[in-house]
Amino acid sequence: MKRRKFIQNAALTGLGLTVGAALTACADGKKNKEKAAATKFTSDVKPSTPMVIATWNVPNATAKAWEVLQAGKSALDAVEQGVMVEEADEKNQSVGKGGLPDRDGNVTLDACIMNKDGDYGAVVCIENIKHPISVARKVMEDTPHVLLAGNGAKQFAIESGFTPENLLTEASKKAWEDWKVKSEYKPIINVENHDTIGMLAIDKNGDISGACTTSGLSYKMQGRVGDSAIIGSGLFVDNEVGGATATGMGEEVLKTVGSFLIVELMRQGKSPQEACEEAVKRVIQKSPNYKDFQVGYIAVNKKGETGAYCIHEWFNYTTNQDGENVNHKSDFYAKGN
Ligand code: SD4
Predict the structure, then answer these.
(1) What GO molecular function terms would the record report (predicted)?
(2) Best probe residue, ligand 1, of 17, 102, 199, 214 (max atoms within 8 Å of C-beta)
(3) 120-123 contact pairs (CB < 8 A, 24+)
């Protein structure tokens, strides 16, 4: 089956869519003044307080990240420990342990992390490791590489002290077996109350980091990798500007390099909200079949302003600032479209 056809079928059959530069010191002349006026975000702008934002209704994850920030730790520690809550939650069938498997029953996970210096680490298609986000961080910090895949990623994890375990829970096994029996589904767009987790945090120094972790499209082809762990697509952070992360049909996010696009739009002066809207519209322009899949983005800028936008209703996200978790409903494109 041709790739495009498979993706289209995946959506139609309901295969799980579980699914600045710093210009502060510019003192010399008109040219720099003009540049400063055109550049909204400068590296010395600090949000009033640390904050966390994450895709979906994940109060335990954002509360954990907040707790880490409150302890004076970095945004990097906060996003890692925050998303680990979802990776460990077996009831979340889109992330970590308990994630829904591929067509052949293998739970394969993708995760990536990005720090304030623009360093990135990722693992894709890793099996038997409950916390791929922590392996991604180790790839970033302990290897000369940025991305490890499949068995190599698993071997690296084991050598780094991670214990391999079975990630296919009884509930996910049963869901897979049911899927194998019926083979016809209607499109299911975000019926779950949460999904892939992408998280962005700003710490007390005003530094931004991000993390994204998923079991990907459920019942996917073996070896399929989505957007979540691919830099610029599922996640992007530029500490001088802001960060963005994605959820939904990874193929569409990958084709438009959505998170990088949002950060670059913010660099050019758009608000996080405007930038998310533009990135969703880019997906829609390129994919006439947008009604069959969901894509959602969240973003934060250096000032701590946030934005979110998606194609279809029901995408939501959680923020935590001052220790208070708030779940927000995202605005969406497909209002009667
Ligand atoms: C992927 N973007 O693998 C992920 C899945 C997801 O909501 O986010 N589902 O394509």
Answers:
(1) hydrolase activity, acting on carbon-nitrogen (but not peptide) bonds, in linear amides
(2) 214
(3) 120/146, 120/231, 121/146, 121/147, 122/146, 122/147, 122/148, 122/229, 122/230, 122/231, 123/147, 123/148, 123/149, 123/153, 123/157, 123/229
**110 Cα to the center of ligand 1, angstroms:** 10
Atom 9 in ligand 1: residue holding the nearest Cα = 19
CATH number of this structure's domain 51-332: 3.60.20.30
Between CA 247 and CA 115 the distance in angstroms is 20
pTM of the model: 0.87
Catalytic residue numbers? 196
Per-residue pLDDT of the chain (337 residues; tens, 9 = 90+): 444 444 444 444 445 554 433 333 334 444 444 444 444 444 455 566 899 999 999 999 999 999 999 999 999 999 999 999 999 988 888 889 888 899 899 999 999 999 999 999 999 999 999 999 999 999 999 999 999 999 999 999 999 999 999 999 999 999 999 988 876 554 455 544 447 899 999 999 999 999 999 999 888 889 999 999 999 999 999 999 999 999 999 999 999 999 999 999 999 999 999 999 999 999 999 998 898 889 999 999 999 999 999 999 989 999 999 899 999 999 999 987 6
Any atom of ligand 1 within 6 Å of the Cβ of 217: yes
Residue extents of the structural domains in the chain: 1-40, 51-332
Rg (CA), the chain: 19
Q: Which residue among 188, 247, 292, 298 is best mutated to probe the pocket of ligand 1, counting the most ligand atoms within 8 A of its Cβ?
A: 247
Atom of ligand 1 nearest to the CA of 247: 8
Give me ligand 1 centre to Cα 32, in Å. 42
Q: Are 276 and 262 in contact (CB under 8 A)?
A: yes
